[in-house]
Design brief:
This is DUF241 domain protein. With 311 residues, the protein is mostly helical. The protein has 13 helices and no strands. Helices cover 78% and strands 0% of the residues.
């Protein structure tokens, strides 16, 4: 027993300069637990957010191509977010903030509802548009008034969607990032990324809904409404409608729909060509917004799964 006791005393003195293995292992584990700062997904989503923020800040009128590009990028941003939410570090951070996750779920539900209602509204508009094209071929003016009413209804519905977006608490999410002291770099980066995703989602959605509203009605969102949106995370942007929709749906087209029975074949053909161009533009926007709609649903499901695991 004495020999063993002496060996236990003399053991650490054999190599007094050798570093302890335990601190080395501890340091190595800590370095693995904080990879998110340089994680490719974080860098990728920050680039997407910056591109969307730059797009939203430009005051120029929108074209269908520009709007489609922004919506596609928004879809990609949410798909990247979904991958980030599946990272172990992300799960740990979000489980530590269940109340914030619940608020995020509420706001994502507003996004999903807004884009779901948008799809329904555009589908109804397309049906009216198809009916009008058939009526033009038959020189039937009875559908012209119904189509005009349908466009005004679409514009009013877009304004309702803008009101729904004003309920999204972008400022609250940004405030959450400022008030809560982050436990790590991962914690801080993730919370700021999510808040920024919410902000650009509002900005692009405002441009979409207001662009459609302005294209089908003379009434635009008031300055007071735009101030409210900007305070809630939306970027102040000139909303003059979607260029192609505005051109194909302008006064000239409206006038050409009158007195169809008195118009010649060439005039009717030109009107139908413009109607087909308008329909194609609407189809493009509908297609890309449907992809955004599905991406928003998947983002909410990813958050819902985290909250479910937390409980």
């Amino acid at each position: 027993m004495v020999g063993v006791f002496r060996r236990s005393l003399s053991f650490p003195n054999k190599n007094p300069n050798r570093p302890s293995a335990k601190p080395h292992i501890s340091h190595h584990i800590r370095s693995i637990s904080l990879p998110c700062r340089s994680h490719p997904l974080i860098s990728e989503i920050k680039e997407e957010i910056n591109e969307l923020s730059t797009w939203a800040s430009k005051p120029s009128p929108e074209t269908s191509a520009s709007l489609s590009h922004a919506l596609t990028l928004l879809k990609d941003t949410h798909e990247t977010l979904q991958h980030i939410l599946q990272l172990p570090q992300s799960l740990e951070t979000l489980r530590a903030h269940p109340l914030w996750v619940e608020k995020l779920l509420e706001d994502f539900l507003r996004f999903v509802d807004a884009y779901g209602m948008f799809q329904t509204s555009i589908m109804a508009l397309k049906e009216d548009h198809s009916s009008l094209q058939m009526a033009i071929r038959k020189r039937d003016e009875s559908k012209v008034v119904a189509y005009a009413k349908g466009k005004k209804k679409t514009a009013r519905e877009m304004e309702k969607l803008l009101s729904l977006l004003r309920c999204v608490g972008v400022a609250q999410h940004q405030q959450h990032c400022a008030l809560h002291v982050p436990a790590s770099v991962v914690d801080a980066e993730l919370r700021h990324v999510i808040a920024d995703v919410m902000s650009v989602t509002v900005s692009v959605s405002v441009a979409l809904f207001n662009g459609i509203a302005a294209s089908f009605a003379s009434k635009r969102v008031s300055w007071t409404q735009m101030v409210k949106l900007s305070r809630n995370g939306g970027v102040k942007k000139e909303h003059e409608g979607v260029e192609e929709l505005r051109e194909k749906n302008g006064v000239e087209v409206t006038e050409s729909l009158r007195n169809l029975k008195k118009k010649g074949e060439e005039e009717v053909r030109l009107v139908l060509n413009k109607m087909r161009d308008l329909e194609e533009c609407i189809n493009v926007i509908e297609s890309v917004t449907e992809k955004v709609f599905r991406a928003l649903i998947n983002s909410r499901v990813a958050l819902l799964n985290i909250l479910t695991l937390t409980h």
